[in-house]
Amino acid sequence: MRIYRESEDLIRKWQWGDPAMRNLTGILLRIAGRGPGKVVDVGCGSGRVAISLARAGFDVTGVDSEKKVIDMARRIAAEMGVRADFRVADFEGPIVGLAPGSCDLAVCCEVLEHVREPARVVGHIHGLLKSGGRLILTVPKDPRQYTFLDEIGGHLRRFTREEAAALLDGFRVRDYFTVGWPCVRSLVWLYTRLRRRRDHRQSEIWAGSTLSRLLTNGVYCLAKFDNLFNRLGLGTNMVFVAEKE
Hints:
This protein is of the alpha/beta class. It has one domain: Vaccinia Virus protein VP39 (Rossmann fold). The protein contains 10 helices and 7 strands. The chain has helices at about 10-15, 20-30, 50-55, 65-80, 120-130, 150, 160-165, 185-195, 200-205, 210-225, and strands spanning about 40, 60-65, 85-90, 105-110, 130-140, 170-180, 235-245. Helix 2 (about 20-30) packs parallel to helix 3 (about 50-55) and helix 2 (about 20-30) crosses helix 10 (about 210-225). The model has no long low-confidence stretch (mean pLDDT about 90).
């Protein structure tokens, strides 16, 4: 992803500080519950979700195709005193070291929009899960919401509900909802109309200044408020909870 060409400091501030992703992580943790259990986090980045799951008592393996962020995840986990296994892996193919049918839970959070063959990724996840194992999948919703922010973030697409559900072959969908409406969606709409692509600077948003922290914390509160309306299906991102048949 383009963001991975930035400094490690900026990547960490973005992946750990993004208010919408912080809110989504909290939702995933509530769905996952507490360990024990074997979890694979596919496309784990610098470890935000994987480390949170390890803190909740799970035996976690995080995989990502970018060595830079796997190295970051290992360092961050060590800083926090958390035990988790992080591996470099091309998750569009089999993941070396994880036996078929060995995982109780798989998490794939905001990953499939970055890959050219998302069905292959979901197929490999299916193979890693035990019978009855759960998958928590999140993807950006609605191609009509695609903006330059998606492009900068390395998104190849946004999904309709039907497109995302079609990827879950071999799974039984147990729950579905969206996040990010009305506040987050309105803020994205406003931002992308007030600023042009060339004016957007990741370094300004994640600079770590007092102002940027106040703004991101304010948006985090709005994102949590949006959770009251998740069942309306109007948000910016979709969440599927599925069970391997």
